[in-house]
Amino acid sequence: MKRFVSGLERALEFAMAAGLLVISVTVVLQVVLSAGFNSSLTGANELITKLFVYVTAIGAAVAASRDEHISITVATERFSVDTQRRIHQLRLLLLVCLNAVIVAYSMHWMDVTGHYLMPTTQLPRFVAQLSIPVGATLAVMFCLVRLFLPASAGDRRAIDTEAPKL
Q: Quick check: is 153 in a domain?
């Protein structure tokens, strides 16, 4: 299972890098066409926006997988290692619940508004809206894996057993 998760993380990182590359190239191309030729690519702004949303949603899931999301540890680092582990488990459970709610509400949102067409590309809005349940579902999966698969001794994500850092 750890190999699968690690492979999925790498695949998602590759997808995010490819998305950022497409965004960067498209932005540069738009600037050159606009400034140099008084022209633009039809649908480029929609493409950039939608790719950015996907990269962000997938990036949030990968951050959850690596336990690299924002956290303030000033209070929790004063507890024993066992208490820190329990707090970490509680945090993972809360992330699972939050992302599960996001999935449920986004599915309803897509059902209600997903059939409307985007103005330039004429694609249905659910193409963009799908990024939210995809990212949240990945986050749920990654959090559950972290919750139920114990961290190995050399795992960079294991709770630090050293003295609190100043």
A: no
* Mean pLDDT, the chain, integer: 88
Q: Which residue has the higher pLDDT, 77 or 115?
A: 115
d(CA 80, CA 166): 16
Q: Mind listing the pLDDT tens digit for each residue in 40-92?
A: 898 999 999 999 999 999 999 999 888 887 777 788 888 999 999 999 999 99
Of all helices (H) and strands (E), which one includes residue 88?
helix 81-113
Cα 105 versus chain centre, distance: 17
Question: For the chain, how far is it from start to end, CA to CA, in angstroms?
Answer: 36
CA 61, CA 150: separation in Å to the nearest integer? 19
Q: How many residues are listed for the chain in this entry? A: 166
**SS3 category, 117:** strand
Range of the domain at 25: 2-148
Please report the pLDDT score of residue 2 as a whole number: 84
Residue 10 lies in a domain: yes
Judged by DSSP in three states, 38 sits in: coil
Write out the two tokens for 15.
Answer: 């997808």
> How many independent structural domains does the chain possess?
1
